[in-house]
Amino acid sequence: MAYIVPIHRPSSVRHALKLQLLEPDNECLVVAKANRLEIYTQNDDDALTLQHSRAIYGKVTILNKIRPASSSTDHLFVGTDRFMYFTLSWDPGTRQFRTERSYVDLAERTARESQTGDRSHIDPSGRFMTLEVFEGIITVLPIVHKSNKSEEIGMLGEPMPARIEELFVRSSAFLQRDGRNEKQKPQLALVYQDSHSKVRLKITELWYTPAGKNDTGGVEFKDLEGGDRLLELGASHLIPISEPVGGLLILGETSITYYHESQNDLGAEPLVRPLDEATIFCAWAQVDNQRFVLADDYGRLYLLMLMVDDDGAVDHWQLDIIGETSRASTLVYLDAGHIFVGSHQGDSQVIRIQERSMEVIQTFSNIAPILDFTIMDLGNRSGEGQTNEYSSGQARIVTGSGAWKDGSLRSVRSGVGLEDLGMLGEMNNITDVFSVQSNASSLEVDTLIVTFIDETRIFRFSDDGEVEEVADFAGLSLNQQTLHASSLPQGRLLQVTSSAAKLTEVDSGMTVAEWTPSDGEAITAVSATSTHLLLSVGSTDLTVLDLSNNFSVIAQKSYPAQGQIACITISPSMPSIALVGFWANAQVSIVDLSTLDPIHTTVVVDEANVSVPRSLLLTHIFSSAPPTLFIAMADGNVITYSLDPKSFALSGRKSIVLGTQQASFKELPRGDGLSSVFAVCEQPSLIYASEGRLVYSTVTAEKATCVCAFDAVAYPDAVAIATNEDLRIALIDKERTTHVQTLIVNETVRRIAYSGALKVFGMGTIKRTLVDGAEIVESSFKIVDEIVFRELDDYSLNRDELVESVMRCELEDGNGGLSERFVVGTAYLEEPGEGDVVKGRMLVFEVTEDRVLKLVTENAVKGACRCLAMSQGRIVAGLMKTIAVYQFQHQHGSSPTIERKAAYRTSTAPIDLTIAGDIIAVADLMKSVSLLHHEAGRDADILKEVAGHFQAVWGTSVAEVGENKYLESDAEGNLLLMARQVDGVTEEDKRTMRVEAEMNLGEMVNRMRKVDVAAAETAVVAPKAFLATVEGSIYLFALITRRYLNLLMELQTILTDYVQSPGLIPFDTFRAYKTQVRQMEAPVRFVDGELVEKFLDMPADIQEEVADKLKGITTNMDVGGEGQSLDAEWFRSLIEGLRRLH
């Protein structure tokens, strides 16, 4: 029924750990991103290099390390949000994780989960590991330190829970005492908040009794006598100090406190030093015994240095601000002054500490948390087969990411990337560019011929990349535009201008041959191979010249005026033919190159389409298939055919829309005689073969006007790309990947909307600043240009007023028409003494011709305006406890007004809205989804609840994904697909929404956006929505077509036996729906695309085995074609099609 697959994996970093996992003597960094583990090593430039990435069945909440006696490397201890724990080692042979031990669910069903995050510690003696997952419970795992038959030294024993009185523990740490003295009991320090909301420090001792023959053993934490002390209210972190200094540091908001290890009774006065400025510390890392790096909530990084006296006791300390980074979730000291800053709400970084400063040496892009997003449609696709806007690069997802100073606007787009290698300088109005060799003995090109409307310029490159512009080159005509230039065998060079074709010798510059049209006609089109030159003269005459025989004429032909030539091409792929496109009737003819007589003529568009072919290219795209003909039409369509090399018949017509204007093609070699095609148009695209199919993917060079291959010694496999402003040398990716473009806002981008007509994004932001130690929060509405991501204008909201929602819509303009408008919903807290009643405003903005904001009107509303939508020309607002419908209108030429037309009181508070016709779906804070019927009237509208999902679900977002079908996400990371039972038997059935599918995504979804992608009749799934999460993931949600539903679900079930997660966590346990009140055993009618795609990574024999198990199912299914064998190859083709969705 439902299919979900990630198109952007989680990028938020909450946990990281340094350990010797891969090799005994080399340390690596393990980073946890939601349910993924990534391993990095440092390279020679001190930057981190990704070595391995693996998904696990659970969101990572704990990382730690242990070293068994028999292992030369560390083992990684991992804990998940489902309370599953396991240890992993690295297998150098398979280069994969190996599960050493996994633990059964340690969850205490009656206990409450820790509100301050999961923690894990290992005591200094290496005998115990503690886990703090539930309030009031510390689970102790003994570490074997005496060898026995069943367990080796260093392995973890069975978990043993111990109860403590402290429920709200903020921080904990073992005192770093001498671990060699086994008689000393480990001491655990706790910073906790008591029942009176006071913050205290307590020292406890761990008493452990091993299990015996008749005793199960036990563990207890005993309070030390007098080991309790009151702390400042802002105390948040404990830092244990290693010997010989020893003791504890307590980080607070206004001070730092030090306790020496000898002060076990906490009676002696500690060393307290106030901070110069109050702050909130959020992470720390130890550099050595006396130096620590601290990070605060505002992104500042500090170096804390303990100063000791002659006796080795702490005398005082020095705290210096060394720089500013993203707000750190975790800090890891690497080596030699390098620190990894892992961030949840900003980019993660690697920094180098310098004297009283720091330097960022590497940045890892992070789009988490995604608070809102919008889809920017750059084009549409049509034709045969299954297509998807995002995978083609024809659409991009623009997210409001990060928080506070790390807030940003991120453009996430699937496309072919470009890496700039250099720029030749500013050059305006380049019409084309060609690469040639500057001497006969050279094997690589080293010269660029750059042509303009009235001149041609030459740039020569040395082997070390130095470039020089030369005044003359090989006898070429440089005082006019060049239509074509290329190197030929025997050290010759071909140049074609509008007035002549010239053949010269590269070394001497002598003209070997020259051909000019008769009667002064102009050459309008040209195509050449190494042996032939095809020219269109005056758009009515065709001439074929022999390049190996000094321009001897092979054939000439004239066409009538009504049959003018629009475009031509010849190709070494099929040297005996030429292809000619005509203005009349959109015809393309295949002609004999030796006589120019027609072989086949095809009309490439239907009668209703008046477009004409404007560019042709014939090349080998597939290794074991005939050449492919590309036809660029004047209206932006690109049509492709397969050209049979024997019969010259065209077949397999496919069409795609790349833009609104014609594209021009350039061939880029890929090796082995194959090529990809660069299409220069509004959205430049690379067309290449992947898994037996053509892939169209947008290139990140949005302003490209022309391109050519430039495989020079200094720039191997490079391309030269010209824009209207400059010429660059760049490396182009072979195929598409995900690219992220960033606009740093330095404010929380809470809401975002896109206007295609205005070509701007509207975003509501929240800014936080510190003034004299006090936080000042301000909010505003901004507009940003869609292309250059530049802020155009902003409108500041009132004091204590925050933006809650932003919507783009069309509203009355007062002249009987509609105009683009942005509607902004806000909330603010009234001044104390007036009831502290939360209220809000609804603001309507227009964007003027000068691209600045103008407030059209505003309306006060009775409650925070949480969400906005449009229904039948009305504004629908989700207020604090009400759904209200408003009409925006101009009355008798006066200023516009907003009039309330209807209202409906929800169960608790509306969180999100989606509109489907006259049905308004409301996601409620606590009561799932309700459907309201909206009937617009002249005097008043009517809102009536017609159906609902009457269960307790803490909703976060909702989207309509089909007729009477709705997808909802909740705060516990679940997804529910619900259907309205319009044809229910009873009235109760019709009022109750039925859950058709449910699963646990493992990440909280903040926003869903419906997408309309036309799927072919043979499509396996139909894309319906994009989902964005707190962890920075973006998912594609689709509905499985009925004929493939059982097949994909059975395939998923079978694959769970073959695809094992590190930790051996069952797939069904990971994906099963789970809330505090209900837990399932497996996902219901949901297919995980990431698991299904693992089929393609399996060995061929395993694929055959899986296919054999599915034969009994597919026998009774209407899948495949007549006589189609549903073998492993068929399944590979099926799943490759699913993979191309993203």
Automatic annotation (TrEMBL):
One of its GO terms (molecular function) is nucleic acid binding. This is DNA damage-binding protein 1. Residues 12-365 form the RSE1/DDB1/CPSF1 first beta-propeller domain. InterPro entries: Beta-prop_RSE1/DDB1/CPSF1_1st, Beta-prop_RSE1/DDB1/CPSF1_2nd, Quinoprotein_ADH-like_sf, RSE1/DDB1/CFT1, RSE1/DDB1/CPSF1_C, WD40/YVTN_repeat-like_dom_sf. It is found in: Nucleus. It comes from Rhizodiscina lignyota. GO terms for cellular component: nucleus. The keyword Nucleus applies. Belongs to the DDB1 family. Its main location: nucleus. Signal peptide: none annotated. Residues 421-731 form the RSE1/DDB1/CPSF1 second beta-propeller domain. It comes from the Eukaryota. Residues 779-1097 form the RSE1/DDB1/CPSF1 C-terminal domain. Keywords: Nucleus.
